[in-house]
Each structure stands twice: as structure tokens, then as C-alpha cells.
Design goal:
Blueprint: E1 8-9, H1 27-30, E2 32-33, E3 46-50, H2 65-73, E4 85-91, H3 97-113, E5 117-121, H4 127-137, E6 142-147, H5 160-170, E7 176-184, H6 191-199, E8 203-206, H7 207-212, H8 217-222, E9 226-230, H9 251-262, E10 269-273, H10 284-303, E11 315-322, E12 325-332, E13 338-341, E14 347-350, H11 352-359, H12 365-373
Helix pairs in contact: 2-10, 3-4, 4-5, 9-10
């Protein structure tokens, strides 16, 4: 993986001069950093990569979003010593947008093949397409999830960050097994767009549905292979760089979602996109993004404690029958998460509410949606 340094620039440490370094308890002291020498990635779990490419946002020029986020992330305290972290700098911006996509894809392919979890910081939201290209190159069928106030399926728009999902969801050959969209805001979305996504058996969750019972999003994120979060999903008061809408997720809710994502054994890439430092106030959005990452790492630490589903001594087992269908539920004694057995005897991620419905002789919607896609 040493060849990866050909695609990245080292991290500039100018943003830490005011701190005169870090204490033993802070992340900045423990992250393996590409400043002069490229770090050995063999003994790492999570890899941070910065992206400066913003031409997908109506031709905006590159910015230093990743470095501003790093500035605040490195100051946070390192509670998760079992999760080893490296930062391999910023991906070199290509001559064209497609060149940048190709560089991002190349790096992701190598890191995902090596079993690493990759965090992409900065860039316009269409960079999620480059994320997806990496899995196509590896011929992996994936479940993708996007956390965004809008659904970027505007095929008529010339702006790449507004239409990239069209290519990701409809191009052939296609590697999308399932798609989830979390926290969309209805007034930004054409009703027929939702009807089309529903016909494809994709799942979309309004921001009100998410905030009303956010724990229901944990099984959604547990199945996710690649994830993206657009800063515009977080309301302006908690992320002032979001100039699109005053409403959205709170910072706390966004952190809960990224922690759930960290708990996903399937997830191997996560991008935080559309942060523009030039629109931020007192770098509060960068602080918010750094805390999203901290909670993702917190979830990764918790995941290391989870037992295998085959090791039943670490699970509570429940048998139930709904509409003459007999099934089993498992609840982890370590993380309290739930799984539900399907007719093919495989277990899928579910929630306590699914168990309650099944016990009341109701078909859980998650069970039904999964069967429709089978």
C-alpha cells in the first residue's frame, strides 16, 4: 500500500502551531500521520483521507475543509485505544473531475481490499459516486446509505452534486443491492421521486420519522456497506455552514447516527461531504464534523466487543409466531442489538420494535420489506 502516497499530499501541520502539540490523551498524539514519511497501515483499522475536490458543486474551487476538520478532531480525547487510526493526507486533485474520481477509487480499492475502514473528509457530495466505483471495481454488491436533506436524483440538472445518484442507482452493470436515504426533507423532494424509489424497494426516511424514533435507524445502518453524510442534513443552528435550510437533524442526532454506522460490521467507507469552511461561523461546523467522526470511532470500539451470531451464549433468544409464521429473535447481551430470523433461516438486523410487533401477531414492516426484495 506504499504506492498510495503517489495519490496523496502529506498533512500540513500548520493548524496545530497554536497548540504547541498535543497531550497524551488527545487523538493528535495517537494518529499515525503522513507528514514526512508515509505511515505503515498494516496495524491500523480506520484510515482518514482528506478531499479538496469541489468541482461537482457547480464548479466550486477546492478548499481546505479536511484540514479545518482535522484541526478540531486531533484535539479530541482518545478513548478508543483498541481502534488504531491513520491519516494519509489529502488526495491530489486531478486535472478533471473524473481524474479525481479515479484517484479516490484507486485508493479506496486498495484500502477496502486490505480490510480497512476509510473516512473521507471534505469534497462535494458527488464524491459518493467515486466511493461506489471502488466497490464496482471490486465486483462487490453493496447496500448504500445517504444522510442528506435532499435526494440528489435531479437528472435534468447539470450540477454533478445534484444528479450523481441517478448514475449510482441506475447504471449497468449495477452493484447496488439496496439503497437507504435518511433524513430527507419533503419540501425539497418531488413526490414522484419518492414513488419511483419505493417501486424499486428502496427505503427513504423523512427527517421527522428519523428524529421521532432514531433507534430505528440503527438496523438500517448496521446493514450498510458505504455511507455518505451531507452537512446540509444538520440544521443551521448546529452546523452554520449549512446555508440551505434552517431545519434538519440536531448535532446530537447526527452523532447518534454516525455511532450506529460505526457499529456496522459491513461498513467499509464513510464520507462527510459538502462542508465549506468559507461559509462556517467560528468553525462550529468543523467542530460538529470532528465529533461525528469521534462517535463513529466510538461505535467501532463497541463493535469489537460484539459476539458472533453463532455464539449463542452471548445472546438472549426469543421464539414467536406472527400470522402463522414461526421465527426467532436474538438480542445481544453485550450491545443490546436485535436480529430477526427470516424464512430462509438467515438473520437480519432489526430493532426491539420489530420484536414487539411480531409478539403482537403483526408482521414487522422490516420483515415485509426484506421479503419483497428477496
Amino acid at each position: 500500500m506504499d504506492d498510495l502516497k503517489d495519490f496523496t499530499n502529506p498533512v500540513s501541520l500548520t493548524f496545530i502551531s497554536e497548540d504547541q502539540g498535543y497531550t497524551d490523551g488527545q487523538l493528535g498524539r495517537h494518529i499515525k500521520l503522513y507528514d514526512e514519511d508515509f505511515p505503515d497501515l498494516d496495524e491500523t483499522d480506520v484510515i482518514l483521507i482528506g478531499i479538496r475536490e469541489y468541482r461537482g458543486n457547480a464548479g466550486e474551487e477546492e478548499n481546505n475543509a479536511a484540514d479545518v476538520i482535522r484541526k478540531h478532531l486531533y484535539r479530541l480525547h482518545y478513548w478508543h485505544t483498541d481502534v488504531r487510526i491513520a491519516d494519509i493526507g489529502n488526495i491530489k486533485t486531478g486535472e478533471s473531475l473524473q481524474d479525481s474520481y479515479a484517484a479516490i477509487r484507486t485508493i479506496l480499492v486498495e484500502l477496502i481490499k486490505a480490510g480497512k475502514t476509510v473516512l473521507l473528509l471534505g469534497g462535494s457530495h458527488d464524491i459518493m459516486l467515486a466511493q461506489y466505483y471502488a466497490y464496482c471495481h471490486l465486483n462487490r454488491t453493496v447496500e448504500a446509505t445517504c444522510i442528506d436533506a435532499r435526494i440528489d436524483l435531479k437528472g435534468e440538472s447539470p450540477v454533478r452534486s445534484e444528479n450523481f445518484l441517478m448514475e449510482m442507482l441506475t447504471s449497468e452493470p449495477n452493484q447496488i443491492k439496496h439503497y437507504n436515504h435518511i433524513a430527507f426533507q419533503s419540501y425539497f423532494v418531488h413526490p414522484r421521486m419518492l414513488e419511483t424509489l419505493d417501486k424499486l424497494r428502496f427505503d427513504c426516511f423523512r427527517v421527522g420519522t428519523v428524529t421521532e424514533d432514531i433507534e430505528e435507524m440503527e438496523p438500517v445502518l448496521r446493514n450498510t456497506d458505504l455511507l455518505s453524510l451531507d452537512i446540509s442534513a444538520i440544521k443551521y443552528s448546529d452546523a452554520p455552514a449549512n446555508r440551505e435550510c434552517p431545519n434538519g437533524l440536531s448535532g446530537v442526532e447526527a452523532c447518534m447516527l454516525t455511532r450506529y454506522a460505526g457499529l456496522s460490521p459491513a461498513l467499509s467507507s464513510f464520507g462527510i461531504y459538502n462542508y465549506d469552511p468559507g461559509k462556517d461561523e467560528n468553525e462550529l461546523t468543523a467542530i460538529q464534523a470532528s465529533q461525528l467522526i469521534w462517535y463513529f470511532i466510538d461505535g467501532r470500539q463497541k463493535l469489537l466487543q460484539e459476539a458472533s451470531l453463532g455464539d449463542l451464549q452471548y445472546f438472549n433468544e426469543y421464539h414467536t409466531i406472527f400470522t402463522e409464521i414461526e421465527t426467532r429473535f436474538l438480542q445481544s447481551k453485550k450491545t443490546q442489538r436485535w436480529w430477526m430470523q427470516m424464512p430462509d433461516k438467515k438473520f437480519i438486523a432489526c430493532s426491539y420494535q420489530d420484536y414487539v410487533k411480531a409478539s403482537s401477531n403483526e408482521i414487522p414492516e422490516r420483515w415485509l420489506r426484506f421479503q419483497e426484495r428477496a
